[in-house]
Design a protein that fits this description.
Elements (H helix, E strand, L loop, with lengths): L1 H19 L21 H16 L3 H22 L5 H25 L2 H21 L8
Length: about 140
């Protein structure tokens, strides 16, 4: 009986030590958000983007509504594409589809905006892209 008790105690300690060494499970990429923000619906994202462009470019009410509709369609399409499984085989195809979708969006947006507004939009996008690239530059090796 004493041997059985010692064997049980040894097993308990080893099980406790083994469970203490397990790593916590990370949230899947799609669910991982910075802070406590929740994912926005395509409708919310379209509304926010339309408001932002309206303020930055000085859009009229009808232009704002057209931009909102255009963004809504784009965000719904993007959400549908995200649900598809990404594999290495179709990664390049998805990249080409996304580029074509962006080109269509830009062409439709150009029809909605005036020449001056579109020029300002293109400038804002270029600044945003430059800022984004600046943040993701690899660090220089320290000597």
């Amino acid at each position: 009986m004493k041997k059985l008790l010692v064997l049980f105690a040894a097993f308990s300690f080893s099980a406790a030590a083994a469970s203490a060494q397990t790593t916590p499970v990370k949230a899947p990429h799609a669910q991982h958000q910075k802070g406590t923000k929740t994912a926005k619906t395509p409708e919310q994202r379209a509304e926010q983007k339309a408001k932002s462009l309206s303020q930055k470019l000085g859009l009229s009410a009808s232009q704002t509504e057209q931009v909102r509709q255009l963004n809504l369609a784009r965000f719904q399409e993007m959400q549908a594409k995200r649900t598809q499984v990404a594999t290495a085989a179709n990664k390049q195809q998805r990249h080409q589809e996304m580029k074509a979708s962006k080109d269509r969006y830009e062409a439709q947006l150009k029809q909605i905006l005036s020449a001056e507004q579109y020029t300002k939009y293109a400038q804002l996008q270029a600044e945003k892209q430059a800022k984004h690239k600046g943040q993701h530059q690899p660090r220089k090796a320290r000597s």
